[in-house]
Here is the input.
Amino acid sequence: MTINRPDRYNSYTTNTLLELAEAMQVASFDDTIGVVVLTGAGERAFCTGGDVREYAATFTQQPRHYRKYMVVFQQAVESILRCTKPVIARLNGMAMGGGNELHLACDLSVVGAHAQLGQVGVGVGSVACGGATQWLPLTVGDRRARELLLLNRKLSAAEALEWGLVTTVAPTVRCDGAEVPTPTPAQIAAANRSTGGYGIDLGPLDAAVADLATQLLAKFPECLRYTKVQTNFWKELAWNNTIASAGEWLALHFATPEPYEGMMAFVHKRSSDVTALRAAAAAGGSPEFLHGPPALACPRCGAQGLPGAFSFCGRCGAALDPQQPAGG
Here is the structure.
């Protein structure tokens, strides 16, 4: 099962999530399928989460639609979590943000040595509460989970294995055709750029995935299914107690400047101006609003609830008087 959007680093749109949930259901019901492999197209990315362009164009403009999106996202994640077949994540490249959350929903994972894993939520004006806040503490421990979630640290494949975030690492980095057993960050960077004789070979990744699948297919299918149900107890407990409120909070949060600034900065390839938001709060301002609270009224046309930072009415262009508050 392949997320086929390599030109967008295999980020997902609402439609991608709908297709993923449908495909997982088909795999669950098809008795000719014993193991599901979830991967991304190409060698750059497994999945990098939601398409920020869709977020910026739709959800920062009409935040109520984010709650609907979260219904679809929840169905997709649960289709992996509750698939009646074991699901192996074939991490052919970076697994970031929601991509790592899809990875966490899987049962086992094999990562190429050239890949990185991590979360980006608090760095782009969001919260990784679509699986990461719930399952990273269970997977890597509380302190390490906080390092990934609060600091957005990126893990190499070797670090992910050491932390228990993946099942195994495949030696995908090559130099002049020869395997590089323990590649350095510089060698990984060169391989990802295909420079200096370095490159990526996904053959070992496929072999490692095939080995896991072969082992699983040698086990009794009903026993595998119920073992998965039992092993999912703590994941289900954390998920079911938080995901509904997560969707509600995120939908409300998308009406504020934090996600607007984070998403716009990403789309326009610039750094987020977090300092300005913090400074506004420290100065007694209202950083919860993009252009100030709905505090002013227009003396000419009577428009109410105009942003406090506006000098002129956005409806008729008249000058605004800060001493004439809305409702006055």
